[in-house]
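User: Some background: our group keeps a shared notebook of sequences we're curious about, and every so often someone picks one and asks for a predicted structure to add to the entry. Today it's my turn. The entry only has the sequence so far, pasted here. Could you supply the structure so I can complete it?
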Amino acid sequence: MRKIRIFEHISLDGVIEHDGDYTYGAWTTAYRSPAGAEMLFQTYGSDFDLLLGRHTYDIFSSFWPNAGDFPMANAINAATKYVATHRPDSLIWGPVKNLGNNIEVAIHALKSTDGPDLIVVGSSALTSLLLEQGLVDEVVLITYPVLLGHGKRLLSDKVNAQKLAFIDSKATPTGVFINSYKYIGLLKK
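Assistant: Of course. Here's the predicted structure to add to the notebook entry:
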């Protein structure tokens, strides 16, 4: 059985995408470092597939195929991309597979197969669905030392309270924390 691992770049105040105001559009850039990239790649692992929403797939497909020859780019380009989309005919960056019309059933079936971990990056609507369905095994938050104030949040307001257990934390030289949590389930009242 495969594990589903969510990876999300997030500000201290819970913003994952500073939308609407692109003054701070590249808010993660100042905190990138070779050591931090290596730590993140180690957290991903060298063998994984991707589980993506269509918007994230489109963003990735415009960047990663041209990113160059280095371990993270090579692993992402080689990974099978399982995509939640209503436009499967335009999926060109592969290897790629459409999840079909019933995403929940497709993800349950995919999770029950043998294969590498399934990594979700971005794709906040998909993240919310996976948590609601109890399909997540691990949540990795890459937390940046910034407060953005407004923007897109990790989860929709419809997601029920969830309980996680701390696994590990790493700090990059630029102050980014890579925090890993095991998914436990619904938080009991």
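Suggested note for the entry: Strands lie at 4-11, 15-17, 48-53, 81-84, 96-98, 117-121, 138-144, 152-153, 162-171, 177-186. Helices lie at 34-44, 54-63, 71-78, 103-111, 124-132.
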